[in-house]
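Quick one, probably user error.
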């Protein structure tokens, strides 16, 4: 017997269905709790942003889902951004998350590929990902380097109110 290949299907932008948005809405609290411990997810706000991306009402917003075996395995949202001092445009991720059960699949990489293609189509010169310090950030950065990403700078954060 050979190795069984997991099939990942990525749907982005207008190809994301209402049922997929509903499923992502159920996953958002877990994703936010894992990525941003102590932060309470605002599902309504998230769904508003997702809806803006998939309907095209927010042209500078991107959203995709990855399915493994017909189930939502993860999602990625991003936006176009630019420098205030030049005409350079870049795409940056807002939130990307993959269920624990799908982390051995290509779900994350496939979603990033869809995001990169969207960025190219929108005229972005680069794609940026933000990794906050946690147990997985170094592993994710090392993996991203294999796909052409470079570590660039340091993000500093100061909490100024509760």
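Nope, works fine. Designed sequence:
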């Amino acid at each position: 017997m050979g190795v069984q290949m997991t099939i990942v299907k990525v749907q982005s932008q207008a190809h994301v269905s209402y049922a997929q948005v509903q499923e992502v809405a159920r996953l958002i609290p877990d994703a936010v709790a894992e990525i941003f411990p102590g932060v309470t997810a605002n599902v309504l706000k998230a769904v508003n942003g997702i809806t803006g991306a998939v309907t095209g009402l927010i042209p500078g917003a991107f959203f995709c889902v990855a399915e493994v075996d017909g189930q939502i395995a993860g999602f990625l949202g991003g936006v176009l951004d630019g420098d205030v001092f030049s005409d350079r445009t870049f795409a940056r991720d807002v939130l990307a998350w993959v269920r624990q059960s799908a982390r051995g699949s290509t779900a994350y990489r496939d979603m990033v590929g869809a995001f990169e293609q969207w960025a190219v189509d929108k005229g972005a010169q680069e794609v940026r990902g933000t990794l906050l310090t946690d147990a997985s950030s170094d592993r994710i950065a090392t993996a991203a380097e294999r796909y052409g990403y470079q570590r660039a700078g340091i993000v500093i954060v100061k909490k100024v109110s509760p």
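The longest helix spans residues 18-35.
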